[in-house]
Fold this protein.
Amino acid sequence: MKTRALAVAALVAVPLAAPAATIPSPSEFLGVKVGADRTVADYRQILAYFKALDAASPRVEVEVLGKTTLGEDLFLAAISSEANLANRRRLQEIARRIADPRGLTEADAEALVREGKVFLFITGNIHSTEIGASQMAMEWAHALATAADAETKRRLDEVVLLLLPSINPDGQIMETEWYRKNLGTKYEGGRMPWLYHHYVGHDNNRDWFMLTQKETQTVSRAVYHEWLPQVWLDEHQMGATGPRIFMPPYTEPVDPDIHPLVWRDVNLIGAKMAFRLEQAGKSGVIYGAIFDAYWPGGTKNTAWWKNISGLLTEVASVRFATPVRIEPSELSGGGKGLVEYGPQTNFPNPWPGGTWRLRDIMDYERIVSDAILETCAERRSDFLKNALARARAAIATYGPADAFRIPAGQRDAAGAARLAALLAEHGVELRAATNGDVYVPLAQPYGRFVNELLTPQRYPETKLVPGKDIVRPYDVSAWTLPLMMGVTAERATLPSALAPWKAASPSLPLQGAAFALAPGSPETARLVNAGMRAGVVRVARAAVSAGGREWPAGTVFLDGAAAKAAAAKAEPGQSWTAIGSAPSATEPLRVPRIGLYKPWTASMDEGWTRFVLEQYGFEPKTLENKAVRAGNLNADFDAIVLPDVTKEVIATGKPKRDEGAMRYFPELPPEYTGGLEKEGAAALKEFVEKGGTLVALSSSTEYLIDELTLPVRNGLGRASDFAIAGSLLRAEVTPGHPVTYGLPTEVAVFQDEALAFDTVLPGPEMERRVLATYPAASQDVLLSGWMRGPEAIARKAAAVALTYGKGRVVLLGFRVQHRAQTPGTFPFLFNALYWSTAR
Ligand SMILES: [Zn+2]
């Protein structure tokens, strides 16, 4: 986008071929000293500066990719030679052919490599407190736009740089506002009491295979549908007391399905980064530590399976833009790759300690950014050839008839349609059979990516030293979409007669007096919630017959008005049946009034829960500590959800002090401190006694178990041989309970902590039902991922429902909506909310 109308009038008058000297630096343009202590440009200023660069320089083109969650313009700056930018369409076409070389002759391929340019994608500041990259980007872009030296011009001839100074603009703005507001107070540079992404906070870098957030979707579209870069660098910041910068090579483990030429490109670039840093006298440079090459959830990680050379840099942080002083005695290692802080082969020149500032972060980031541009220019034809080789190898991994089939006729047809749509959004090619089955051919450039996401994970138990413990997963260890989504996708042979895939239409006839909607898909919640707000929705508490067939417990019946509103929310693959009238043996269903607890220690699970509920048409109200403590909760709520938050944070607002880690927990301003305290606990107890429903997710179950003295305990609390890292476990579901309506007899639950319940027989005043149980045979428990000591969890309860006074308590001891990635278990949560309004 060429923008000329801008704040600074003088700029608008600058002709396109302006001499370099007339292009203002970011500090000149913004009137603030960019990179100085306690000084930050916010995202709107950054965008204004890039628009000014775009207007003034033929080497910079700003393109708004889309809107963020809170409505900001998410932009990319394409920076290259004037000739390359003018030739953009052709260069994009070349990148596309290199990424998908099917049908190219050897001569075609060679010609494309000769003509093509390296597309280098650089993203920064996804984590909004890691502010350095967003500031550095302005200075770097200015330098590239104004350079007159032959070397820079050569780099811009060989490479098209696609620079995103921040891929979380909303959070960049929130954090800069919070920082400015607290400057000069004792809270300067401290944490915010809320998430820096409206829904997901720091987990915005965990969304890259599920694509649930607008920013992820927008950037993924730019990467996998528009630009098809060969190299992607994502710039982050890490803790303040270790090395000054990490860059690849990564540490163990590495996923064996990623093409080794990814690592060869990445390592070559990483070596050049370290080389240039050392030459510039920068100490504290480390590689081969902490950050692995195994998990596909992060920004550039997903790209590894899509044949892109993805790099991460992590620079030591300051307190946002406030310098920190690190005493030499405070410097520490402690992670994989650097056990003790001191010189070793991957860390030859430790930083000695001292003052560390925003300017240092920006200087380190600038050097590595220049180094990657330099290497991409130097290795232009190698990197294009390698990208081509990776795509060809991916295609050749499988036979031409190897495929996955996503059957149309399955328990959750809407979920199946959603899986197909997600793969298409990833740039995966799909085919459709006339019966609606979707086929995913594996002999395509993203074939390995498809296989990674559709099959179970088995974590490689790598050891760095013989006899010692394995390297533990960095994040989660399972991402098997069919298990998480509760849908079937199976290996199959590709039939010959297939059509191109397109999203299926829902089948929701509107002629009739009533409509029966069978339970079984989380997607039905959208229809039920819309229907209840417009008309009458009834639910069958036991199997009923209607329209000449049997319907299971949990089936809902919509009247005409409800159906009309519901149909407007329909998703592909959804269907219902028109019948004469709803059976009389049904109960009206009412919109549950939901309170969602939000602690001041920002909880990503609170954000994810809010996101999922809103997506499915629930309208949760945020419940802060003060509102809970005030009591009288039944007046406003049928159900209160406690997201996955530790009992200490719920009770007091502060995490348990981790003695070993010596973690300091910075104070928040007084209006954001405290927890539920005694009054809040009493208010929740009163709420449930008077008929409310409390739903606790994962860790927060322990809070309710303690406060309400429930006949349940965490049976893994002291099992020292048990360990797990975000894995999918098999659980057997108790049928017929209002919380398990529509669920299959067996589900994959996502578990990431040592939590599984033992229950005991309560007194006559209380009923308890185990809703889901881990299998008795320990070898049957793990479906995907990594777990140690499955014997400890076998036969224990995963979820429990209890009556309590006139109300109910639902304990869901697993991550029921983990990062919005587990629709297969959403019904536990949704059903619990509907149950809250039942008689
Ligand atoms: Zn980060």
Q: What stands out?
A: The chain has a mean pLDDT of 95.
